[in-house]
Amino acid sequence: MNLRRVALFTIVATSSVLLTLHAQQAQTVRQGVYTEDQARRGQAAYKEQCSSCHGEMLEGRLGPSLTGQDFIGDWAKQPLSELFGKIRNTMPQDDPGKLTPQQAADILAYILQVGKFPSGRAQLSSDENALKQISWPADAVVAARPAAAAGAAGAAVSFPPAGNLAQVMRGILFPSANIIFTVQTHDPNEKKKGPDAAEGGFNWAIWGSQIYPGWELVDYAAVALAESAPLMLTPGRRCENGKPVPVNDPEWLKFTQELADAGRAAYKASQTRNQETVSDISNVVNDACLHCHQTYRDRGGRGRDPADPSNKANRCVKN
Is 57 inside a domain boundary? Predict the structure, then answer.
């Protein structure tokens, strides 16, 4: 009798473990990851919170469409947790963070329903770790759009440099990086401070704070880093000292890629609307800048201090 009880207990325990493991296994949105009731709740929340920007039918209005191949293609290479985080942390745009985790999950369920992904027996979780286990099916990754393909087939368009490398750095990369570094000591949700522009004269550093919310400025700065990093590779660009930028040097290419990756990582961190997360990633941005500066900018020679900003003669030449 005792042996039978032990055997029964073993079977039950094993079944429980198997069910737990099954629940933790990766799923795709085609496997019924939400319920019909949840999608109905999501539809109601969407109409109240989202439709004014994204349209009654998710077709897009002030904000982008939330359905169709273009929309799916933008998110299909990431787990469902990324789209959930975008909704939870940054929407509605005029009051980000207003939605509860459950509301965000419900709206996401409605988006999946409109996208013709099937419902199931279990509700879509509002737990980010659980959502990381849900992906899009492989064939949902949209191939290059026809317009992009047509452009690639035609002649490449090139733009000659308008400024030297120092001007690009000081006009785009430096202020953008500093916005991200500022998150280490200031929460972007802080009440705006600073002198009035009319009283303090021309202040290029604070103009955006008078127009956009703090977190949006961090978003824009991160995007600026990622998108403008390739400007370091523009053929014909010169350094401030007149020397050509080493656009074909393997290390220069590596550092450019590192900066672009850091910008993308900073944008992803900013989307969490969490000061500590962005503070942590600011070290990655700092390292990307430092690696290039140590090799190509902070040059010594003739008794000069390598860290002296006025030492420009050897810039754009490797140590």
Answer: yes
